[in-house]
Amino acid sequence: MTEFLIEYGLFLAETTTIVIAIAVVVSLIAGAAARRKQDRDGEIQVLSLNEHFEDMQHALEDSVLDEFRLKQMVKEEKKRDKAEAKERKKAAKKGEDEPDRKRIYVLDFDGDIHASDAETMRQEVSAILSLAREEDEVVVRLESPGGLVHSYGFAASQLERIRRRKIPLTICVDKVAASGGYMMACIANKLLAAPFALIGSIGVVAQIPNFHRLLQRNDVDYEVLTAGEYKRTLTMFGENTEAGRKKFVEELEDTHDLFKQFVSEYRPNLEIEKVATGEVWFGRRAVENGLIDGIETSDDYLFNAVDEADIYKVTYEEKRSLQEKLQGMGVSMVDASIGKLWSRLTQSRFWAR
Question: Tens digits of per-residue pLDDT, 77-87?
């Protein structure tokens, strides 16, 4: 009797765990669906990177320099600021307008399989386009191993909006811009990457498991009913046909052709047939193949521009309830796990040991 109660208790515990796990998954899916349907309220946040770099410099000076040297630097800085203010005042009296400094607007895009950041980027781009001038610049710090074609096509279209307004677009890749990530990156007027960033993967892939034989062995029938010859070419549970496979491959080839045409439109000097093999290259090799324009990290690019431009990081922050934040964290964790698995499967040969 005791053994029966113990086994029964273990069974109840396992069953309860499974039910709770299913409930959590259903809740996450429902929350994600509801979040996509609702219009979001949010606001644009702007951070001056000039001030950010200056604050870092002052913090280091306070820790490193002795008191005498620090006082001297502060005195020299005040003297310089006073002289600049005097010159501006003198120019104003003469009726001379002070020339506007160039502005650089910085966006961050961290790509997952669904290119989820495109939703916030569309708001950020709209805000920038409401004020940006042709003499300004937009810098996008882009990281993505790629994902769904239609999702990255939409993300790329947000960057196209900047190009159409004739505002210089610079894209910096510090780690990876592959497949859909490169679809976005190639739009840049200037495309830069770190020496060992992964660049390229101009190709299309589809992987579909099929459980038809497993179902057959267990006497399980699975029917797929369609209207339209090619409504469903390949399926996970039904029996796939050679005709279905042929049509599916044709669709992949057509998508690949569209991808190559898109890249060629923005990088016309690229030998597209040479690089559109699905391969990826490290930054240094990517320069040799014409995939990027130069080797430089985003940090160096922005730091070197501080003296000549006012640099602003622009982000769009959504207002969400605690429940929505928790649901979003769950969905993000699932997406991140899938993204890591995808990266390992597609880039597993690149390890430094």
Answer: 788 777 767 77
